[in-house]
Amino acid sequence: MCSETGSRYTGMLLLPLAIAAIIANLLLYFPNGQVLEPAKITDLVWFFHGFLGAGLLVMVPALMLLRGGGGGCCVHRCGMLFPVLLAIQGTMGAVYCVVISSLGLLSGPFCDTGSGNYTYPFRNDSLEDNYLFNQPTWATCQEPEHIVLWNVVLFSILLGIGVVEAVLCLGQVISGLCDVYCGTCIRKGQVSAPRTREFFSHS
Questions:
Q1: This prediction's pTM
Q2: CA 92, chain centre distance (Å)
Q3: Based on the structure, what is the number of domains in the chain?
Q4: What is the pLDDT of residues 12-27, one digit of tens each?
Q5: Which of 38, 92, 130, 172 has the fewest Cβ atoms nearer than 10 Å?
Q6: Which of 106, 99, 92, 93 is nearest to 42 (CA)?
Q7: 94 to each of 79, 85, 99, 164, 168, how far by Cα in Å?
Q8: Transmembrane segments in this chain: where (predicted)?
Q9: What is the largest CA-CA distance in the chain?
């Protein structure tokens, strides 16, 4: 966590991913580019898994990592715990996005099948008969137009973003916990004081 170069690279990856997650979540509110009543939008979109989960909860640790983990994070172990807690927060947000995105893909969109009433035509499908593996059934949803493709693409994007963010944040958690446990700080050109004194004592 105190390795400035590695932290900044991770932050540079996490920040655009968080922004992309927010944009993808926003697009889910406008199926096929249409403005619909809130009651006609897929319910899982309102869990804000892109805005909150893979977005804001990941953006905070990403910005912290871009600053190199903080000015004096290695001065004492308590100070090193703060970046770890933020990375845990990011991991939880990313996992939340993965869970909701998976449910969104499995249950399918909220749409009009031609009767004039909106429903979830694919929600009770078994895993083997799921609409994702039977593309001709996508025509069941007539309104909004192309709603199935719209949902599949955006939920898949959010799922992928969540997985990558979870891996990156979890890596920062492990790295940070190792730093806290070992009491080390890996900064370029820095040598721990105790080892330096030990070296000169044996000279």
A1: 0.84
A2: 8
A3: 1
A4: 999 999 999 999 999 9
A5: 38
A6: 106
A7: 24, 14, 9, 8, 10
A8: 12-32, 44-66, 78-106, 147-170
A9: 88
